[in-house]
Input
Amino acid sequence: MKRLLRAAVIGLLAHTPLGLTPVRVRRGVAAGARWTLYPWTSYWRGTHEPTVQAALMDLGGGDIRGWSCWDLGAHFGLYSVGLGKRVGPGGQVAAFEPNPQSCARLRRHAHMNHLDNLRIYQAAVSGKTGTAELFTYGDLGTTTTHLPYDGEKRTEQVGAITVPVLSLDSLVQQGELRTPQFVKLDVEGHGHHALAGMQSALQEARPIILAALHSPQEIAGILALLDPLGYQGKDVGISPVSDPTVGRDFLFTPRP
Output
């Protein structure tokens, strides 16, 4: 009976406007922000990726007013909204999310919080501007839709949609974005390609980078780009890990 009741409640939340009921984020980087009830309730309950949220709250010694921040792989915008509130009106946050379903919720959350300093791009980031296939596996409602991993081929069983792809250096050159002091990078194995499209910004601004690591190829590519620029990395999790490892989040900072 409890299982049936739970399924009925989830069905109501997922398929009716009840899921859009406004709530407040209880704690974490976006504490106090207005949010939507369902899905991914861990976002507003404040329990999502606690070590990542702690690292974000520690940026700049806790004061990042006026910063420019890029959120690559923003999903529903928990970190975009949190950063937007923290940088203040003099700062700028750019959020990139290619999944149209996720980006629609991201826009809703930005609107709910009146964040005029948050720019939203329904696009993926990569080494050059153009288009690419976003692999969906038939479900846009997950957090794991992604551009193809290195060597990954699409089969008949893999759903896909075509999405815009942007080079971040091009947006800076066009005057749309400021170079960043901070970059959050969580793009399901495509992080090295995203960084390749922002090499000029990396060299000029030397931002702090918080990267979620998804594949050995992504790790090797990220290190190949950051090592020559004098970056050092540390795990943001609870276990001491000296080298970047798949499935973990690493904070890369430029050496003085």
Summary: DSSP finds nine helices and twelve strands in the chain.
